[in-house]
Design goal:
The complex is a heterodimer.
Chain A (H helix, E strand, L loop, with lengths): L1 E4 L2 E4 L14 H10 L6 H15 L6 H7 L4 H7 L4 H9 L9
Chain B lengths: L1 E6 L3 H13 L5 E7 L3 E3 L3 H4 L7 H4 E3 L9 E4 L2 E5 L4 E4 L4 E3 L2 E4 L3 E3 L15 E2 L4 H13 L3 E7 L9 H15 L6 E6 L9 H13 L2 E4 L4 E5 L4 E4 L4 E3 L2 E5 L2 E3 L1 H5 L24 E3 L12 H19 L12 E8 L2 E7 L8 E5 L3 E5 L4 H18 L32
Parallel strand pairs in B: 1-2, 1-9, 2-5, 9-20, 11-18, 12-13, 12-18, 13-14
Antiparallel strand pairs in B: 3-4, 6-7, 7-8, 10-19, 15-16, 16-17, 21-22, 23-24
The chains are: A mainly alpha, B alpha/beta.
Chain lengths: 102, 421
């Protein structure tokens, strides 16, 4: 479905995740963060940049990956994106949330 | 004489040995396979074994019985691969040279990766993805008086991603039949956003959890197990109490992959997701659970990969370009208890949907829908595994690439695949 974000139109799925990463920009990220009630700081953006880089390399994301990345500790990751950090951070980053097969 | 060495005689390695035995000119090629284990296990049996189904002999056989007689079987532990010297070093000091290497070393549970998980291991804390775990849990369940049964996934990816859910469904059935379902709370704890994460599956199957009275705790990324106080704790400080913890520990690749410097941070081998060639060395191919490709770690995936990889290996040795044919196809039964099962058929781009399988419009199996015939399919599968899949015989009507015929696919722009290269 098409979603209006600050006069920009982006394609999202039923859960509000972007389905076309090319449509992402920082303003889109900010809008999603606002909906998730997260106030973005430089640390948030550093994590988002890391997730997007992994996505571009087609690397599947997991908490282990984050832990080993040295970009952010798991504790800090939870503090930055409370209540399901991978789910929320991927949404703000404009990439698919980690999913299982069903 | 040239030499292909296969590392690992599990489902993937054994199927490759059987395919290559038929496809290669054995006057020019020798095929060797290395594995340290004496037995080959029918791993789907580990799901049923804790509930008193199957005997030992049903689910394990001497590893040699499923290998072709022309394949040189080496019973040894692998130290490491030297990809530049094209040699495999064994822990007994032996060396095995190769012209072409196939890595099929799989994945294994690593409970030691989670703080406190080994406290109470096989007393109150169990896995069921190993023969030892399934046996220990079977014994435990025989006399367990009831309480809080927590079925828990540590992290992804894991082998057979639906097995934990099947375990919860079968546990509901098991305790119901024992006349003690009212004494058992079943709690399903997952690091994902829910028990189901795909839109169509969530819509079609979400009701099952409610019907079976299974509580779901989602977004739970475990930090540690506190076995003295019988609880698991996640990074957000969320706690879940248990009386019996059935956990799926982190899944890692074989340690020999790390020693060889060939793995990612979970010891899985970076592999081209369509050709199955190693990204680092062109004369190394990888299949089954050992790869890092974003397909399910499942026997059906290994089966489809083995068919396509055989073709690519023939092309490689003839100097022809590889075919990028593997599409992530997986086909899995999901036991839902009470004599019923579901079937899912999907690939990298297509999520599981409803429909008929393997013959479009006819079935007889139904996709993403509970039925008794699906359950019979799963029960018949053990025979099919030993007698058709491992020997590398083709399954009628089932192609290695996913077939869109017989699937109810709604073409909607928002479900456009986004992970495609």
């Amino acid at each position: 479905m098409i979603k209006e974000m600050n006069s920009k139109q982006v394609e999202v799925n039923d859960e509000g995740y972007l389905t076309n990463f090319d449509q992402w920009d920082r303003q889109v990220g900010l809008n999603i963060a606002e909906e998730e009630e997260i106030t973005m700081t430089d640390r948030h953006w550093e994590v988002i940049a890391y997730l997007q880089e992994e996505f571009r390399k087609s690397e599947p994301l997991s908490i282990r990956k984050i832990k080993n990345s040295e970009v952010v500790s798991i504790k800090e990751f939870y503090d930055l994106f409370p209540g399901g950090p991978l789910k929320k951070a991927t949404k703000i980053a404009g990439i698919p949330k980690p999913a299982s097969c069903v | 004489m040239k030499r292909i060495v296969i590392l690992g005689a599990g489902s993937a390695g054994t199927m490759m040995a059987n395919h290559l035995n038929k496809a290669l000119n054995l006057k020019e090629w020798e095929v060797a396979i290395i594995d340290e284990a004496p037995f080959h296990y029918y791993q789907p049996g580990f799901l049923f074994y804790p509930f008193g189904k199957y005997t030992e002999d049903d689910i394990r056989k001497d590893i040699r019985t499923s290998l072709p007689s022309s394949t040189h079987y080496i019973n040894a532990s692998i130290d490491r691969i030297d990809p530049k010297g094209k040699i495999v070093l064994l822990q007994n000091g032996g060396t095995e040279p190769y012209d072409l290497l196939i890595i099929a070393t799989g994945t294994q549970p690593a409970p030691e990766e989670v703080e406190g998980m080994k406290d109470g291991w096989y007393e109150d804390v169990f896995d069921f993805y190993t023969f030892d775990g399934a046996c220990a849990l079977r014994k435990k369940l025989e006399s367990w008086p009831g309480g809080r049964l927590v079925v828990h996934i540590c992290e992804t990816p894991i082998k057979c991603p639906v097995a934990p859910l099947e375990f919860a469904f079968l546990a509901d059935d098991f305790f119901y039949k024992k006349g003690m379902r009212d004494k058992v709370d079943i709690i399903y704890v997952t690091p994902m956003s829910g028990a189901f994460t795909k839109p169509v599956a969530s819509e079609k199957l979400g009701h099952l959890l409610k019907e079976k009275n299974i509580e779901v705790v989602s977004d739970f990324s475990i930090e540690r197990v506190d076995n003295p106080h019988k609880k698991i704790i996640d990074y957000a400080g969320q706690e879940v109490n248990y009386d019996l913890l059935v956990t799926i520990p982190p899944n890692l690749g074989n340690p020999c992959i790390e020693r060889s410097g060939l793995g990612d941070d979970a010891r899985f081998v970076p592999t081209d997701k369509h050709t199955l060639q190693s990204k680092a060395y062109p004369d190394i191919f990888v299949l089954g659970d050992a790869t890092n490709v974003p397909a399910s770690k499942a026997g059906s995936v290994a089966h489809f990969q083995a068919e396509l990889l055989t073709e690519n290996i023939l092309r490689f040795v003839e100097g022809k370009p590889l075919k990028p044919d593997f599409d992530g196809h997986a086909n899995c039964f999901i036991e839902t208890g009470k004599g019923k099962a579901l079937l899912i058929d999907f690939n990298y781009d297509q999520e599981p949907v409803t429909g008929t399988f393997p013959i479009a419009g006819i079935g007889p199996l139904k996709l993403l829908e509970e039925s008794r015939i699906n359950h019979w399919g799963k029960m018949a599968f053990r025979w099919i595994y030993w007698n058709m899949l491992l020997p590398g015989r083709k399954l009628p009507f089932v192609s290695p690439q996913m077939n869109i015929k017989g699937k109810n696919i709604k073409v909607k722009t928002e479900r456009k695949p986004v992970l495609q290269d």
